[in-house]
């Protein structure tokens, strides 16, 4: 990202049509979608890693995408997740304005940590700020869902909602959009990101199209138990409910070392966990930081043994979502 001294304000920017600010920088957090049993309806924001974005307001109705990272993502707005989200916002705004976006990603695409959601959400939150915060959070989620469609072929909000709202969110419905922020007790989150790619679109293709009733009943019980455990600060109930009998058995075959990480982490005292989004990242929740650190060691040992490069994070729930960088 450019240094602060290179970020101009509207007093020196004749291209800014509105307000006193023509450029803003934001950080957009990684997210864990599904939370094991809540496929497409539960999500959680992480404090680490985070993407950094700079968005500039333009008088001409164009969208320009630039990258300050090495991921070689598309710059055409229609093919870029941030661009697609901004196009939707632009169409909903009553005046003709444009945006220039500079993205510096720390959340690797295809990691299962909400990389596309971070770009989509960060772009629309920043743009909304530049326009005077005229759109609501549900509006921003709807705009950003167009970016998720570019990434996966499907409009979903389980990463976007926590990225914009912060914390843990329940998406009761997409049509109409109904997002419920959930309270939760303090939780430590350990994540391992094997340096392989699992595309969300591919991970969706392998899922079964029909589910047996007995499996659905078990899954509904786990979802209800997890939400109740979060709201009641019941760590034991949270742990009992972090089980997936529908999605995880299919997707886990794409992730080397998954079973060993999960079994050994729970034996070390973790409450539970599973695949982060579509993978390949794996997350585990712990009540104590000491346990979360033990889980990190377990994750490192597993992937060192099987010879797959990886990154780990020991972090916690991000309660703010996308936020303005200091100085804005």
| CATH level 1 name of the largest domain | Alpha Beta
Q: Residue share in helices?
A: 25-40%
Which secondary-structure class do the elements indicate?
alpha+beta
The global form is globular
Elements, N to C (H/E): EEEHEHHHEEEHHHHHEEHEE
User: Which whole number gives the mean pLDDT?
Assistant: 91
* Whole-angstrom Rg: 20 Å
Major sheet description = 7 strands, mixed
Q: What oligomeric state do the depicted chains represent? A: single chain
Number of domains: 2
Percent strand: 15-25%
Strand tally is: 11
Low-pLDDT regions: 1-19
CATH architecture of the largest domain: 2-Layer Sandwich
Q: How many H/I helical runs?
A: 10
Head-to-tail CA distance between termini: 15 Å
CATH topology of the largest domain: Ribosomal Protein S5, domain 2
Describe the structure.
The protein has 2 domains: 4-182 and 318-324, Ribosomal Protein S5, domain 2 (2-Layer Sandwich); 188-316, Alpha-Beta Plaits (2-Layer Sandwich). α1 (81-92) packs across α3 (137-152) and α6 runs antiparallel to α7. With 328 residues, it is of the alpha+beta class. It has helices spanning 81-92, 115-130, 137-152, 160-165, 200-205, 213-231, 235-241, 248-251, 258-267, 289-306; strands spanning 23-33, 42-58, 63-67, 98-104, 168-173, 178-182, 188-194, 272-275, 282-286, 310-316, 323-324.
In short:
The chain is an alpha+beta fold.
Name a few traits of the molecule.
about 325 residues; alpha+beta; Ribosomal Protein S5, domain 2; Alpha-Beta Plaits; 2 domains; four-stranded antiparallel β-sheet; about 35% helix; globular; disordered N terminus
């Amino acid at each position: 990202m450019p240094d602060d001294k290179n970020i101009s304000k509207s007093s020196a920017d004749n291209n800014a049509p509105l307000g006193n600010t023509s450029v803003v920088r934001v950080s957009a957090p990684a997210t864990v979608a599904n939370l094991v049993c809540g496929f497409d309806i539960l999500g959680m924001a992480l404090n680490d890693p985070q993407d950094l974005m700079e968005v500039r307001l333009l008088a001409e109705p164009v969208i320009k995408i630039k990258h300050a990272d090495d991921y070689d993502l598309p710059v055409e707005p229609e093919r870029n997740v941030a661009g697609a989200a901004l196009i939707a916002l632009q169409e909903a705004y009553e005046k003709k304005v444009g945006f220039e976006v500079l993205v510096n990603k720390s959340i690797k695409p295809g990691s299962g940590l909400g990389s596309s959601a971070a770009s989509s959400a960060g772009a629309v939150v920043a743009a909304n700020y530049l326009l005077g915060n005229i759109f609501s959070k549900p509006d921003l989620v709807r705009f950003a869902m167009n970016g998720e469609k570019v990434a996966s072929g499907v409009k979903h909000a389980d990463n976007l909602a926590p990225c914009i709202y912060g914390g843990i969110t329940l998406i009761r419905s997409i049509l109409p959009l109904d997002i419920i922020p959930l309270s939760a007790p303090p939780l430590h989150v350990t994540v391992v990101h094997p340096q392989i790619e699992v595309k969300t679109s591919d991970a969706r293709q392998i899922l079964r199209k029909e589910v047996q009733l007995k499996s659905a009943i078990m899954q509904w019980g786990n979802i209800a138990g997890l939400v109740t455990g979060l709201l009641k600060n019941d760590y034991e109930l949270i742990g009992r409910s972090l089980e997936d009998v529908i999605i995880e058995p299919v997707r886990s075959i794409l992730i080397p070392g998954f079973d060993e990480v999960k079994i050994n982490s729970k034996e070390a005292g973790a409450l539970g966990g599973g695949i982060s989004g579509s993978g390949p990242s794996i997350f585990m929740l712990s009540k104590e930081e000491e346990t979360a650190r033990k889980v990190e060691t377990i994750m490192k040992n597993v992937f060192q043994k099987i010879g797959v490069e990886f990154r780990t994070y020991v972090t916690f729930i991000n309660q703010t979502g996308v936020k303005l960088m200091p100085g804005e």
